[in-house]
Amino acid sequence: MNTSDKLNEECGVFGVFFSDPKKDASSLVYYGLFSLQHRGQESAGIAALHENAIEYRKGMGLVGEVFTQEVISSLKGSAAIGHVRYSTSGGSCPENAQPFVSHFKLGSIAVAHNGTLTNADVVRELLEDAGVGFTSSSDSEVIINLIAKNYKKGLEKALTDTIKFIKGSYALTVLTEDALVGARDPNGIRPLCLGKLGSGHGPGGAAGWILASESCAIDAVGGEFVRDVEPGEVVIITKDDLLSFTFSEKTRRAVCSFEYVYFARPDSLIDSVDVYGARIRAGEILGRESAVSADLVIGVPDSGVPAAIGYGRATGTPYGLGIVKSKYVGRTFIAPDQGSRERAVSVKHNVIGSEVRGKRVVIIDDSIVRGTTSRRLVSILKTAGAKEVHMRICSPPVRFPCYFGIDTPHRKDLISNMNSVAELCASLGADSLAFISVEGLLESIDPGSSRSEYSGYCLGCFTGEYPIPVAGEDR
Ligand code: SF4
By CB distance 3.0 to 4.6 Å, which of 78, 232, 264, 388 could disulfide with 186? Predict the structure, then answer.
């Protein structure tokens, strides 16, 4: 259950394939996972292909905690996949850490998954009835068991039969004894992109290929971003070939709009949109939609900062650094009860008093989930001497849960589900409060878009309209 005051990203995936068996993919996956650490801090793992055998290490904790120099050195392989996890489906425990690895009669495979399957219970029951055993409570284990069950049909057919059977959101990396595979669900809800490494004798004249949740991880290992994996696409990389095909005729892009607001790193491209640029534009649009007369605009670090710069540019309000965030309090900083959560906000954020004293301050944040952080921020700004505090939010009110790989609190704990904007403003103690409109959010991501046409982005947690039907939607 999400007890934090943010929506939490579920996972990040990363894979590398070298045609030359002497190259070391594991250490690149290790660096790639560091760059994706913001997508999951509960567990980390790497599976590597070495001389036709798949070996793996995984455990609870951050990448740097799970993988010492000794562990990485012992995990040799010319192809490897890795995973960082924050749990939504299944609990936070070592059994649910990924990649999942299966050794079976016809070979070995490893799977790393970002997303949530909406029909995992049904598929699991069918597999269990057929005698398939499970070692975890994670929905991702369903995928590896389905691939293993279908493997006698050949890799391509095993993948398509598996993928056609599962529903929900998935960005997958799969490692077999001779291939690295990437796949994305027909709506492309969770991101996945393709990169290449240097020049060599592999397919496409590259020395190696990369699959990553975000392009920042491709940059981190010196790779070159090539393109996004398309919704409903499978990419199979072997030493001789890079094969791509679309497994579903019913693809309809619905990329998670929250990736641009908060989840992704600002130096990433998500579906070819520059995340930093989208955040700057969100601030400019907030300035257009809900400007207020003020002396200073500040952003809540980290994701509120580009929007504050954009708001300042659009309105002529001076931008300043009014809030400092502790670098050492992670996104999963645990605060089990409301009292602890209130104190946790003080640990995370502090005000630069000299910057805000006596001023009318606009403060910009990415979202309001439970309201704990926002209330505390207003309070510490006023205590530090701000004359007025006006909150502006780069996402529309979060009123509905997510079912596609993002950990959301229960609907009754989403403060915007229970309160009007005016009630929420009063409860936060702010002088004014405004959220970007749904149209404004879409425009920030894709300046040419309009809500009157199909946008290509999931807006489910804002509008309650989901790209995939969700059984028993009110959980
Ligand atoms: S419901 Fe919200 S968080 Fe979930 S995929 Fe859609 S936009 Fe993203």
Answer: 232
